[in-house]
Amino acid sequence: MKLTKNLVFAASAIVVVGLAWVILSTDEADASDQRTNDAYLRAHFTAVSPRISGQIETVSAMDYHAVKQGDVLFELDNAEQKVAVTAAEAELARTQATHTRLEAELVNQKNKIAIAKSRVDAATARLNVASADKTRYTNMAEDGSGTRQDQENAQTAQIEAQAALDAARLSLTTEQDTIAIINAQLAEADAATQLANARLENARLNLSYTRVTAPSDGVVSQRDVRVGGYVHAGERALMLVPKDDLFIEAHFRETQVAHMKVGDPVSITFDSLPGEVFHGTIETFAPASGASYSPVDPINATGNFTKIVQRLPVRIQFDATPEQQSYLRVGMSAIVDVQVI
C-alpha cells in the first residue's frame, strides 16, 4: 500500500514537472490568445482657446454638457472690435470715394485733351493762313502792288500765329502728362482700397472671434472660463471630449506582440460594465514602448542591470452602439483579448 502511494506521488511529480517544462519552454508569443488588463479607453481631446484676448461677457458651455459643432461656448466683450469694424468701413468708403473722384478726373482730363487738340488744329489753320498772307503781301510789296506796311503786318500775324500754335501744343503736352499722373493716382487708390478691404476683413474676423464656438461635437470638460474673467489668445479655456471617436490603448508585453498584426479581432470588457463584451480590431502599433517616452532615460549604464519586459501600446478600434457609448468614459480600465490569426 505504501509502495503504491509512493508510485502515485512520483507519477504526479513527473506530470507536474513535465507540464511545467512544457509551459516554460513554450514561447508566449505563440499563443493564439493574448490578453492584457493594462488597457484604457482613450480619445483625442480638443483644447478650445480664444483667438483674441478679452474679457468674458457670457458663458454658454457648462461642465459635462454635450455640445454640437458650431455651438457658442462663450463670448468676449466685442465693443472694441465693433469700433474697429466701423473705422475700417469708413476708411474703405474714403478710399472708394477717392477712386471714384480720380476716375471722374480722368474722364474730364480726356475731354481737356480733346479740347487742346482742337486748339492745336485751329492754331495750325491760323498759322497756315498767316503764312499764305505773308507770302502774298511780300510778293505784292516787291512788285509794287502792295505796301511795305501790309507786308510787315502779315509777317507779324504769322509770328503771332506761330506763337499761338506753340502755346497750344505745349498745353496739349501738359494735359497729356496729367493723364499719366492721374493714372498713377488711380493705381495708388486701387492699392489703398485693397488695403482698406483687407483691414475691414481683419476687423470683421476679430469681431467674429469674440464668439468662441465648438470646433467639433463633444462633452465640455475642465472649463476655466467665468463671466467677467479675462482670457488671453491661445490660452486653453476648456476641453472637448469626443463621444464617438473612442479607441482602446492596450499595453502588451513585448513577448506577446510578435505574431499580432493589424486587423486581428479583439474582445473587450470594461471593469465598470460587467457582462458587456465589445468587439473590435487592431488598428495600429505604437512605434516605441511606453518607457521610451519617459523624460528619464530608462537605459541603465551603471552596471547594475535588471531586465524588465517592456510594454508596447497597441491601438484598438471597437464598435459600440449609441446607448453603450453613453456609459463609456475616457480613462476607463479594460481587459483586452486578441485572437491572433
Walk me through the topology.
Blueprint: H1 2-25, E1 33-43, E2 46-48, E3 54-59, E4 66-67, E5 72-76, H2 79-143, H3 148-208, E6 211-213, E7 218-221, E8 230-231, E9 238-241, E10 246-253, E11 265-270, E12 273-285, E13 311-318, H4 322-325, E14 333-339
Antiparallel strand pairs: 1-10, 1-14, 2-9, 3-5, 3-8, 4-7, 5-6, 7-9, 10-13, 11-12, 11-14, 12-13
Protein name: Efflux transporter periplasmic adaptor subunit
Organism: Alteromonas confluentis
Domain p-hydroxybenzoic acid efflux pump subunit AaeA-like beta-barrel: 246-338
Summary?
This protein is of the alpha+beta class and 341 residues long. 45% of the residues lie in helices and 24% in strands. Strand 11 and strand 12 form a beta hairpin.
3D structure, described in words:
The protein has 3 domains: 27-44 and 242-339, Beta Barrel (Elongation Factor Tu (Ef-tu), domain 3), CATH 2.40.30; 54-77 and 210-239, OB fold (Dihydrolipoamide Acetyltransferase, E2P), CATH 2.40.50.100; 79-207, Orthogonal Bundle (Helix Hairpins), CATH 1.10.287. The chain is 45% helix and 24% strand. The protein contains 4 helices and 14 strands. It has helices at residues 2-25, 79-143, 148-208, 322-325; strands at 33-43, 46-48, 54-59, 66-67, 72-76, 211-213, 218-221, 230-231, 238-241, 246-253, 265-270, 273-285, 311-318, 333-339. The strands form 3 sheets. The protein has a 6-stranded antiparallel β-barrel. A hairpin with a 2-residue loop joins strand 11 (265-270) and strand 12 (273-285). The two termini are 51 Å apart. The model is unreliable at 22-26 (pLDDT under 50).
